[in-house]
Amino acid sequence: MLQVDVGSRALVGNERWFLAHTQPKSEWRAGLHLGAQGFRTYLPQIEKTVRHARQLRTVQAPLFPRYLFVILDLDRDRWPTVLRTDSQRSRSRSRITKR
User: What ranges do the domains of the chain cover?
Assistant: First the structure.
């Protein structure tokens, strides 16, 4: 079931939502890196049942794999920092688009 909590994610002033494209299975890590730099992020998640070695487990999984929502004010925030933030900097950089 999808649960949406946008309590601390209300937009103020010129802030807008942007979509960051992350490395595979690195959405949480990218969110932690951006949060440590002061950016507000949102990663919608779903509960998913996975089967491995004849065992079923329920896990939290991203609703949109490889994507992370970021709140930015382009007049205030240094958005190139978001482009450089990645779980593994040696790989290609994240792409960001306005939504």
Answer: 16-98
Task: Choose among 26, 11, 24: nearest CA to 70.
Answer: 11
Dist CA 31 CA 26 (whole Å)? 9
- Between CA 5 and CA 82 the distance in angstroms is 23
Predicted local confidence at residue 76, as pLDDT: 87
Task: Domain 16-98: give its CATH code.
Answer: 3.30.70.940
Three-state DSSP class for residue 30: helix
* The CA-based dihedral angle spanning residues 2, 26, 35, 92, taken in that order and rounded to the nearest 10 degrees: -130
pLDDT at 77: 84
